[in-house]
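Retro notes (design track)

What went well: tokenization of the new backbones is finally stable.
What didn't: we kept losing track of which sequence belonged to which structure.
Fix going forward: every design gets posted as structure first, then sequence, in one message. First example under the new rule, 315 residues:
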């Protein structure tokens, strides 16, 4: 569909920040059930890290009267790249939430925040302190890191183009139903995708995916949630695009969360995007072990309308 037209300054995905009324219940889910570790907290705010990740946190939860996505955060190589990106965005007429500045979130750093074309808040930062992390042990069913985040959009063609033209993301693969494209996988490094978009009725959070150590740990995590009574929306199976395993669940605010592992790494210079038709079930699940992906399953991840569009979070 599109290729990037600007120099890529984003290096990786850092964290996703979400708000919800039922903060205490959501906080308990991510710590006690999903397997993240709280590294900092304040009244109505929780910063949650993945044990295997050097990022200070991969999820930030915030109590709010309305459910919303506060922001999606990415990394840059250094402060000069943050400044260069901000200058580019200003020249392109992009509305900033704030100009580059020293950050007061855990780990500090230097970052800029801005609205994308549909009103999501995006943060790009550098020089965030590296968190002391550890190697996840065999058979330990906790996330290693945040793998990727996908968002719903009613204007996917324009939105994908916005991210390639303004932020330098590259299109890796696309899913379709016949001649109707429905899902776009975007990359900012050699991982098949770190971000992406799903065609939906409104702008909203689609899912956040968490990398597990390996297939055994992935299955143990999937089984743990199943035994605790959590409904599996879809999975376990293995995608063709990205070659990664998948098991999808709902968190306590109705956001879709995924356990995955073995996301494909690619050669950036030689990769050619594919178009996969999901009418062939092997294009969605090469193992053939997952429940069928149908309109009823897909609708569960359409989520509520995001109440945070073009509204900066309070922190």
């Amino acid at each position: 569909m599109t290729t990037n037209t600007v120099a890529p300054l984003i290096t990786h995905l850092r964290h996703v920040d979400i708000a919800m009324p039922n903060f205490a219940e959501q906080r308990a889910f991510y710590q006690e059930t999903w397997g993240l570790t709280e590294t900092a907290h304040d009244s109505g705010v929780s910063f949650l890290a993945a044990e295997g990740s050097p990022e200070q946190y991969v999820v930030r939860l915030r109590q709010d009267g309305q459910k919303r996505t506060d922001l999606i955060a990415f990394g840059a190589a250094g402060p000069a790249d943050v400044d260069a990106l901000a200058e580019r965005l200003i020249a392109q007429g992009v509305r900033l939430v704030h100009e580059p500045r020293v950050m007061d979130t855990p780990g500090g750093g230097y970052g800029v925040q801005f609205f994308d074309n549909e009103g999501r808040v995006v943060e790009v930062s550098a020089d965030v302190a590296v968190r002391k992390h550890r190697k996840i042990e065999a058979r330990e069913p906790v996330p290693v890191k945040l793998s990727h985040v996908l968002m719903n959009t009613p204007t996917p063609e324009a939105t994908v183009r916005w991210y390639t033209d303004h932020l330098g993301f590259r299109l890796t693969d696309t899913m379709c139903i016949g001649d109707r494209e429905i899902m776009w996988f975007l990359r900012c490094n050699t991982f098949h995708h770190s971000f992406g978009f799903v065609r939906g009725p409104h702008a909203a959070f689609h899912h956040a995916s968490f990398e597990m150590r390996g297939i055994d740990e992935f299955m143990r995590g999937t089984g743990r949630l199943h035994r605790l009574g959590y409904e599996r929306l879809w999975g376990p199976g293995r995608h063709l695009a990205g070659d990664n395993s998948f098991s999808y669940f709902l968190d306590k605010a109705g956001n879709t969360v995924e356990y995955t592992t073995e996301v494909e790494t690619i050669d950036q210079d030689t990769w050619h995007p594919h178009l996969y038709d999901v009418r062939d079930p092997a294009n969605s699940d090469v193992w053939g072990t997952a429940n069928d992906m149908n309109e009823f399953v897909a609708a569960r991840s359409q989520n509520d309308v995001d109440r945070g569009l073009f509204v900066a979070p309070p922190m």
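Added context from the reviewer: The helical segments are 23-33, 79-91, 156-167, 215-227, 295-299.
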